[in-house]
């Protein structure tokens, strides 16, 4: 992952977008999200309607 920007705010915005896309791709492919600093993201296997 990489995030760049002309300002710290732009870099932070880019980093947030990169992380969100990384999580979405891992979930779409059925991969686990690794724990970060003891925090975990658990995903239900139940289907869910998206509206």
Describe the structure.
The chain has 51 residues and is mainly α. The protein has a domain of 31 residues. Helix content is 41%, strand content 0%. It has 1 helix and no strands.
Which SSEs are present, and which pair or pack?
Blueprint: H1 8-28
Could you give a quick summary of the protein structure above?
This protein is mostly helical.
Task: Output the keywords.
51 residues, mainly alpha
Oligomerization state: single chain
How many helices? The count is 1
Determine the mean pLDDT.
85
Unreliable stretches, pLDDT < 50, 5 or more residues? none
Helix content: 40-55%
The ordered string of helix (H) and strand (E) elements is H
Structural class: mainly alpha
Radius of gyration: 14 Å
For the termini, the CA-CA separation is 30 Å
Biggest sheet features: none
Quick one: how many beta strands? 0
**Tertiary shape:** elongated
Quote the beta fraction. under 5%
């Amino acid at each position: 992952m990489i995030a760049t920007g002309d300002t710290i705010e732009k870099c932070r915005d880019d980093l947030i977008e990169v992380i969100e896309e990384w999580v979405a791709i891992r979930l779409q492919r059925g991969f686990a999200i690794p724990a970060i600093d003891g925090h975990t993201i658990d995903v239900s296997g139940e289907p869910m309607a998206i509206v």
